[in-house]
Every structure is written in structure tokens, then in C-alpha cells.
Amino acid sequence: DAGAHRWYAARLEDVVPGTAGFDDSSGAVICSFEGGTWPDRLVPIDRVRFVRHRPNLSSVFEPVVGEILEVEMPRTPSAPSGWRRARVSSRQRGLLMVAP
User: Residue 32 in contact with residue 40, Cβ under 8 Å?
Assistant: First the structure.
């Protein structure tokens, strides 16, 4: 989702080079979504992002108010799992409050 800084978990099923309607230099990929939540779709390669490795859990994680994070979103009946950018709006009793 280009404007909202949201990404959804998908499986790359196939690469389609030079797909009509997409930039010939990049092509597209066919993606399927976990549990068939959404139908397979053709996605431009430049909109695909691989999942980043999670940081080492032994490292200190102390984000500050105003910092931008990536927050995991669980799968729902109408959408696959994914992640999105969010800004730390406050810290209360060790919990982070975030907003898109």
C-alpha cells in the first residue's frame, strides 16, 4: 500500500518480466496471501518489500516519543498479516502508544 506505508505478508508465486501496464524494466510478480485472505494479484516489482530481520532480542530497545517504528499487524478474517509505520506518541508505564 504505497501511500499508507503498509505492507502485507504474501508469497511470491511467479515473476512476470515486462508485464503490460507496468514499467518494462521492472515487470511484476504474482503474489498469494496467507490462507487465501485475498485473491492472488499482480504487483509491480518496485512495490514489493521483503521482511526485515528482527533485531536481536538481547539488544536494548528504547524508542523515544516522535520516533517512527514498524508495527506488526495480525491476520484478520478480511486481511493478511503485515506491518506498517507508526510514530511513538507517548510512553506510559513502560508501554508504547503509537499512531499512524
Answer: yes
Give CA 69 to chain center in angstroms: 12
16 vs 38, more confident: 38
Q: Which pLDDT value is given to residue 75?
A: 92
- What residues have CB less than 8 Å from 70, skipping those under 6 apart? 52, 83, 84, 85, 86
DSSP-based three-state secondary structure for 99: strand
The one-letter code for the residue type at 14 is D
CA distance 79 to 77: 6
The reported pTM is: 0.71
